[in-house]
Specification:
Pfam families: STAS. Belongs to the anti-sigma-factor antagonist family. This is Anti-sigma factor antagonist. The protein has 5 helices and 5 strands. It has a single domain, classed as STAS domain (Transcription Regulator spoIIAA). Helix content is 40%, strand content 23%. The termini are far apart. The radius of gyration is 15 Å and the shape is globular. It has 128 residues and is α/β, with parallel strands linked by helices. Strands 1-2-3-4-5 form a 5-stranded mixed sheet.
């Protein structure tokens, strides 16, 4: 499939200053992965630490898309930050489950569920 037949649409909104909600529509594959990567890199550059990737409009994702999700996950963890996948389509969820990505990257049904995970206090090593 060519880009002309299945263009990728990426919209970024900021629910909070450090959180980027990245809504993706279209095929996330070798032809479109660079565009997706550029949007995520731009948000990292602007200081976003948490990424909510809404994949509800992605009917197909190959290893190119999966690799970008894992790459931004690794970069966000170093900040420290996080990556959450929101409402993936059944085909995308299957890819995430089969590859084990869904074990590493949390998947939520709603944006509010992912924001609640971000806000959940982390265990502190200094706690008595």
């Amino acid at each position: 499939m060519s880009i002309a037949q299945n263009p990728l649409s990426v919209e970024v909104t900021l629910p909070r200053e450090d959180v980027a909600l990245v809504t993706v529509e279209g095929y996330l594959d070798l032809d479109t992965a660079t565009e997706f990567q550029a949007h995520l890199a731009n948000q990292l550059h602007h200081g976003r630490r948490h990424f909510l990737l809404d994949l509800s409009g992605v009917p197909f994702m190959d290893s190119s898309g999966m690799n970008i999700i894992l790459r931004v996950y690794q970069e966000a963890r170093e900040l420290p930050g996080s990556v959450h996948v929101i409402d993936p389509t059944p085909a995308v969820r299957r890819v995430l489950d089969l590859t084990g990505v869904s074990i590493t990257v949390p998947i939520s049904d709603e944006v509010d569920d992912a924001l609640a995970l971000i806000d959940r206090p982390q265990a502190s090593p200094e706690a008595p």
